[in-house]
Amino acid sequence: MDDPNFAHAVVLILLHSIDGAFGLVLNDESSSRGVDITDLVGPAWSALVAPPESIFIGGPCETSSVIALGLTKPDTDDLDAESTTISVVDLSQPAPDANIERVRLFAGYSGWAPMQLDAELEQSGWYVADSVPGDSFTSLPIDLWEQVLKRNGEPYARFPSNPSYN
Question: What is d(CA 108, CA 23) in angstroms, rounded to the nearest whole number?
Answer without folding.
Answer: 10
